[in-house]
Structures are given as C-alpha cells and as structure tokens.
Specification:
The complex is a heterodimer of chains A (66) and B (262). By secondary structure, chain A is mainly beta. Chain A has 1 helix and 5 strands; from the N terminus they run ββαβββ. Chain A has a 5-stranded mixed sheet, with no helix packed on it. The radius of gyration of chain A is 12 Å and the shape is globular. With 262 residues, chain B is of the alpha/beta class. The chains are: A mainly beta (66), B alpha/beta (262). At the A-B interface, β3 and β5 of A face β4, β5 and α3 of B.
Amino acid sequence: MEISLNGAPHQLGEQLSVAGLVANLNLANQAIAVAVNRSVIARQRWEEYRLQEHDQVDVVRAIGGG
Amino acid sequence: MSQTTPSFTIAGKTYSSRLLVGSGKYRDLEQTRLATEASGADIITVAIRRVNIGQDPNAPSLLEAVPPSRYTILPNSAGCYNAKDAVYTLQLGRELLGGQKLTKLEVLGDEKSLFPNMPETLTAAKILVAEGFDVMVYCSDDPIQAKMLEDIGCVAVMPLASLIGSGMGILNPWNLSLIIERATVPILVDAGVGTASDAAIAMELGCDGVLMNTAIAGAQDPVRMARAMKLAVEAGREAYLAGRMPKKFAGSPSSPMAGRVV
C-alpha cells in the first residue's frame, strides 16, 4: 500500500503501525515526532496506531534554527 | 547565575541568563555547541523540520550538541506563514520534547521581509494557549498588538528590534519602551540585533531579555561574539538597574573648579 511520507509517495510492503514504519526507517531511537494526517501521534500510541492507504505521514526532528 | 544580574522567570520557571540564542546558521554542530556554551544561554531555539528519509539515522544530531538535559530547548514555528501551520508545527515540537509546554510562536508575513503576520499570530496564540502551551511570541513592535498577545495569555512577548537576520539593531526604541511600560509579562527583543551594543541598548531600555541567532552565528568569530553578547546583556541589564545619568545639553566638568593651580 502507498502512503505519503514527508510529502513524497512511499510504498509499504504490508500494513504497518507507526512503530513499524519508524523501525523500518531506522529511526526507532531518534528524537523524532510523528503525525498522521496532521494529527500528532504520541509515542506511546505508535504500536497501536495502524497506518491506512493514502495516509499522510510527517516525521520530524529538531534542527538548527532561530 | 551571574553575581550581579538577577535571574528572570518565564511561565513559572527561573532562568539565570537573559540571553536566549538560536541554533541556526552555524558552520557545523561543533561550532553550534561551542557558541551556545559561550553565550551562557539557558534557552535555545530550534526549528522543527521533516527528517530526510534515507539519510544516515546515526549522523550527529542537533540535540546531541545542545542536549535537553542541559538546556531548555524552545521549539519554534519559524518558516510558517499561517496560524494553522504554526500550530501544527508546535504541536509536533511539543511531542518531540516529551510534552514540553514552552514554545516559541512565529508566523511570518512574507519571505522578503520576514515581518510577522500579526492577525495570524494572534489567531495561533489563542489556539495554542487554549491547548495548554506556554507561548513566547515573536511579534511586531506595535504596543497595542503586544498587549493583545499578553491579554490572550502569552507568557512572554518578543517584539522585533529590526528584521530577522538583518543585524540592523534597535530601529524603534520608543515603541519598545511603550511595550515595556505596559507589560506585565517578560518582554524580550527577538530579531534584529547585530552586535553587542544593540543587545546592551535593548537591555538598557528595560527589556527582560534578548533572543538572537544571526548576530552570533554570522559573526567572523561566532564563539567570541557569543561571549560578547553574554557580557552585553549583563552590562545592559546592570545599566538599566543602575539608572543612567540625565542627558544635558551643556558640558559639566568632572573635576572641581576650586583649588586650581592656574
């Protein structure tokens, strides 16, 4: 199935949870935040939250800024 | 904490440094780390941006150079041009920092001036305060709208001294004074400081603090400028508390006239 990941199409081989997606991206232990369809998904809900076809997922981090 | 400069409080938390610094525009993370340390700042602003998918996840990250265990990390909505995007960005920032309420709202008006869009800033401030955020807000130096932001419930109001990244210094000290006189929350100059004297002037006007990024990161020697800014903010605060002498139109000798040898 296809989702939008950080604004670009992204294929998932199977239906995944947010935790599964984050693990696939090798970001499991990083300081990141995730939103699906512009709703923030708290880290403690990553396991239970199942991604759906066409979901728009944002994965963000902190970078230098003013 | 400095021996001479009392600390100040934002949203119930006390900070020893009245200098707040951004973490952008440095050569690398090591320079970010060194300049941040030299500034003596407690509060460091960061931007919230999408992860580059596919990049090395083990590459050094900003939060290693500026660790949340040592600093208060202030997520910023820089780069947002409407209230909706700014609120979304800061919701992500709160989650990223484990539910931290303190946040910096900034809604820009156009890409050339980076002047704040005040109607959108006011809208976003209302939403964020209602959602329980402690909002430090970047704004124009309009005393009426600064007061509106305070009335909405923002915990600090941060008017520009001049345009973001311009280094033009304090262009309208009179407006800043009007804002400071009326305020019951901390007023910080955010944006426009170019060199140490600008920071000192902001503090002499009675600002509670100064937030800057480019003035340090854009200096020839950012680490040294960070130290200069630390001293300037402390000096300006001390001068404000000391109360400057009145200005006079005529000269006034410092030495007594009596007992001269001629």
